Amino acid sequence: IADLESQLTQSQVDLQVARHRQSALASELRESTTSLKAAQAEVTRLEAVIKHKNGRLRTLNDNYERRLRVADTTIATHTAELGRLQDRVSTLDRDLQKASQRAQAAISQRDQARAAHIATREYLSASFLPRPARDTIARLEKRINKVERSQKSRQDLESALAKLQQERDDLAVQRDELLGQLGERFMEITDLRAERDQAQGKLSSIASLLPSATGHKRTRSGAESPTSSTRASKAARSTSSSSQASASGHAPVSASPIELLSTAAVGQRATRSMSSSSSAGPPGHLHRSVRSAAKSGGGGASSLPVASEAIVHSDSDESSSGASGSTHVFDSDVAGNDSGSPESSRAKNEFGMPSCPLSDAELAALQPTTVPRSEWIPGYRDRRSFRGHDIVPWSAQDIRQISIVEMDADLLFHHYTKPMEWLIPLRDPVPPLGDWREDLVDEDNVRDLIKSAPWEVLAAPLDPLTFKSRGWFRHMKQLYASYEAEHLRAYWDSTHAFPVSITKRRASRYLDAFYTDRKQRRSRAGARWKSFLQQVLIGLLRGYCDLDLLLDPFFLHFPRPGEAGAWYPGIEYGADPADLLEALTITDAADRWRNHYRDVPEEHPALEIARLRG
């Protein structure tokens, strides 16, 4: 009986252990089932995201191809028109030369007739011969009449010559306008390519996650037992964690973001210089190789249109007299004339950019400026350290991490267009609703505000402080003036972005469209501003100017991330405006920076920087 009792006890213990094991196996089975469902849901979600991204990519590709075809058609039309205008100019030049030759012949005949007339008079006064003298006088009168007719014909030719010259000048202006339009088309194509590349990068990053998820799904579904499924999932998790740890262990920790960006810019410029074409056509010639090179090349300065370079060279015939226009900026005439500089013999790529930085000898051969180029901001080839009070308002820490040859359009766009907290203060915390007049933001007040066009205050004419409008600087000024006139409202929006709640946008189609258009205007203006900075990069690489050019009050600037830009109507202490127009008047009077000091140019912070005035 005792043996049976011990056996019964042992059996009960074994039964309890078996029940615990059964419970553990059931728990593992439930966990495996839950993990399988989660993996399947994640795979389904990723497939939906990829499908959406594929649709978006197809749409972008279609839009890109359509706009590219339109741009190609426009370029072909403009190129044909340009060729026709050039043929017309050549014909006018030939007609002008023929007219000049005829005029010179008429003048020569007139002089000969006058000489013969004088000689005849002297002869008659010396010895009177009645009949032969009358015949001679008659012949001379005929020649004089012929010369007078020739003189009248000469006057007609001169007037026709003046008309031809005027027509030639008009054709030259039309040619420059066509080249400018071609440059804008190239900028739009560059922006489209950047958007397409960004979408493809996002799609690749999402697609890279799909194979691991499907493999995880196959591991789950192909398991023979709950225990093996659990072990497989644990092994997959441990492998993933170890790979992440090994990847993080090789990440650099000592380089700053600006240094990393500058290093990447140097690599991109080196790649572009190696892949650029060595052949160069005439400035006005737009070959298809330009577009193919732009399609295969990187961003930054090399994506500048060749038309811009052509317009720059069209200004090279101006006189080179005059004083320097700034402490830092090169004399405008010299900057616009490449024929007399060492850089004229340098190879340029198909977009007009120097294929490599200027050498020390070429920099020394450039015309000297009031402040030596060795003190320009930043260093041209080598990174230089500055004292903070010598380069105000730039950050000495940021400037010593970069040089001009390391800079590209992306780095210039994100870090060096404007010093932080110079024109625009830092952003304040979002105030509570009771501290400002949200009730003023309604459809009627917004309509009245927009109807008044308050952004027109930014269109006030302002003369440049650091350069004169000749040569390369004239071309750069024309490009910027065109860009600013097109995106003036976006600049005003950037410092007067009053909140429009989602409730009000749902209640009013007008407010919803206003809110959407405001965001789109800012996006388009930012893309065009980045394209314009490629022109500034040309001036930096050629030694025409340094970063202080962008401090000129002539340029408008968007708030940088972290700077103020939102407008809360009626937030000023003691303010009780009746509508948005009155609130705008109060705000602009309190915050002069919101209108970029265009209404009070004498208060612009750039006027306090002595080195800008020279």
From TrEMBL:
GO molecular function: chromatin binding
Compositionally biased region (Low complexity): 225-248
Domain of life, per lineage: Eukaryota
GO CC annotation: chromatin; condensed chromosome; condensin complex
A GO biological-process term: mitotic chromosome condensation
Region entry Disordered, spans: 205-354
Entry annotated with the keyword Coiled coil: yes
Keywords, comma-separated and alphabetical: Coiled coil
Coiled coil: 1-56, 82-116, 147-181
PANTHER family reported in the protein's UniProt record: STRUCTURAL MAINTENANCE OF CHROMOSOMES PROTEIN 2
Name of this protein: Uncharacterized protein
Native organism: Aphanomyces stellatus
